[in-house]
Amino acid sequence: MPPSDQPASAPQEPSVALIIGAVAATLLLASLGQTIVSTALPTIVGQLGGLDHLTWVVIAYLLSSTVVAPIYGKLGDLFGRKVVLQSAIVIFLVGALLSALASTMTFLVVARAIQGLGGGGLMVVAMTVVADIIPPRQRGKIQGIFAAVFGVATVVGPLLGGFIVENLSWQWIFLINIPVGLLALGVIAVALKPREERVKRKVDYAGFVLLSGALTTFVLATSLGGTTYPWMSIQIVGLLVAAAVFLAAFIWTEARAAEPVLPLQLFRNNTFLVTNSIGFLVGMAMFGSITFLPMYLQLAKGVSPTDSALQLLPMMVGLIGGSMVSGFIMTRTGRYRILPRASTFVLTIGMLLLATMSLDTPSWQIAGFMLLVGIGIGPVNSVSVTATQNAVPRALVGVATAGTTLFRQIGGSIGVSVFGAIFSSGLAARMGDLLPGSEGTASFDASAVAAMPPALREQVLEAFAGALHPVFFVAAAVAALAFGLTFLLEERPLSNTLREDPPEAELDAAEQGAASISGVPATATR
Fold first, then answer.
1. Do 111 and 134 sit in the same domain of this protein?
2. From which residue to which does any coiled coil extend (predicted)?
3. Closest CA relative to residue 447, chosen from 317, 269, 290, 302
4. Under a CB-based contact definition with an 8 Å cutoff, are residues 281 and 478 in contact?
């Protein structure tokens, strides 16, 4: 039976269910790799020393996983999903084992970078596998579930990390990945069919190198700017200039490559361009603002780090609910354009409400605000992947899916940096007279605030809460911009069958060019 005639009931096969379970496990591994280490960092630094390398434990994973995302997407298109996904799992597990064996902070940073090289592939290729075995209309509910996995990891990661550190040792934060990864590796080896055809391929090595250089320098600039170095320092300016040079060279190279790692024609595809622009902005608002919610809860409300993580549960519930409901709506109706429009509107309202928080805002109101933010974030993640996979030629599904991950992560990196700079400068201005010589939050924490005289403590906390208002107002503006972009999104009804490519009548000229440049035959299972 040709792929275009396969019935929508195909996803009910047991092997497909096994693959979906293995994919969910690999996505959980990758997302936990980003969040589980945060609560363990003080303990790790206490044992290994190297306080100056603390942030690099997080940055190393973020940077390497971001850089390799589009590369894995293209390799999956070229060589098949199975072998590339298996390779990513192995690299991730090797990095996890090395991290557990680290005896110095420098060694741990290197090991985390290796782990990120695998983690970036887990996220991209795992989500692409769905496009090979599930018809577009049926992918909505699956991608909704996968988006919910990221929401779970956002809250569960720090909680699990804290539990492991308190009851076992920090090494188990990394060792716990190994049995889950081996199980996923075994299931994929049995259930996922390899690509059978053999074709001659031209690997775009120059594109790989230039894209890696552009992303590396850019992510480093946004991660270090305003924290390790001032934004206008020679180091940050130099990194941004280098990123621009790499990007220009990359564009020039991709326009001439036989099989580009990130085909430029994708950016003339309305669905790819608009959904990724929305994803970039939502990622910026999400990561940039969520970073400060635990800080607000710990300082303004006086809760413990673990309790502050628990109080993020309403956001997780909203994110999971929004992701799954939007997925089922896509599956039932075959439509999606209204979903990001409604969710970004809700996200804008949620951010505006967070901007009204003060020291005496009741906890139940804060929970309601966070619930709205979660509802606003969830549908964007599931819609972007499903809509993009439905709108591009099958030979470019992998690299297009990688683009959704890439833009969301870069948006998050920029959001953390930009909002961090807004908060730090606002707090320093407000606290200049209260605590002379203070710089941002460097001079106090929850215990230091608690030890202050009552009158001074009240003033300091008021300054802290006031410094958060611009952060959430800017996040609301970013969400509003994303809402505006949703009106530019064209709708391509989701197909209920697996097919090689969207029908010729639905392909615009740019997509036809992308399909011809790829030169890679597509198959129903890879």
1. yes
2. none
3. 302
4. yes
Q: How many CA atoms lie within 13 A of 479 on its CB side?
A: 31
Question: Which domain does 100 fall in, by range?
Answer: 7-193
**CA 429 to CA 421: how far, in whole Å?**
12
Are both 301 and 250 inside the same structural domain? no
Give 183's DSSP letter.
H
What angle is formed at CA 242 by the lines to CA 241 and CA 246, rounded to 5 degrees?
A: 120
Question: Residue for token digits 């699956």?
Answer: 142
- 225 beta partners: 229
Per-residue pLDDT tens over the stretch 29-54 = 777 776 777 667 667 766 776 555 56
Does residue 160 lie within any of the structural domains? yes
One-letter amino acid for residue 16 of the chain:
V
Domain presence at residue 506:
no
The amino acid present at 64, given as its one-letter code, is S
Q: Which two tokens stand for residue 460?
A: 């300091």
Ordered alpha helix ranges (H), 80-104: 81-100
Per DSSP, the residues of 213-237 read: HHHHHHHHHHHHBTTTB-TTSHHHH
The enclosing H or E element of 258 equals: none
pLDDT of 137-174, one tens digit each?
A: 666 667 667 766 776 776 677 777 777 777 777 888 88
CATH number of the domain bearing residue 59: 1.20.1250.20
Find residue 229's DSSP bridge partners. 225
**Of 48-57, 339-348, 409-418, 472-481, where does mean pLDDT reach its minimum?**
48-57
Exposure on the CB side of residue 90, measured as CA atoms within 13 A? 9
Is the pTM higher than 0.85? no
Domain count, the chain: 3
| Residue written as token pair 């109080």 | 311
Same-domain pairing of 188 and 314: no
Between CA 125 and CA 73 the distance in angstroms is 6
**Would you say 403 and 261 are in contact if contact means Cβ atoms under 8 Å apart?**
no
Which CA distances in Å does 344 have to 88, 235, 269, 336? 33, 35, 21, 13
| Structure confidence by residue, pLDDT tens digits, 437-492 | 544 444 455 566 666 677 777 777 777 777 788 888 999 999 999 999 999 888 88
Q: Over range 343-351, report the average pLDDT.
A: 93
Number of neighbouring beta carbons within 10 Å of residue 86: 18
Residue 81: both structure tokens together:
């999903």
pLDDT tier, 183 (very low <50, low <70, confident <90, very high otherwise) = confident
Q: Is residue 460 part of a domain?
A: no
Cα 375 versus chain centre, distance: 17
Q: Is 526 contained in some domain?
A: no
**Do 19 and 163 have their domain in common?**
yes
Pair (22, 151) in one structural domain: yes
> Residue 220 is encoded by which pair of tokens?
């480093």
| Integer Cα distance of 459 and 340 in angstroms | 40
- Pick the residue with more confidence: 489 or 389? 489
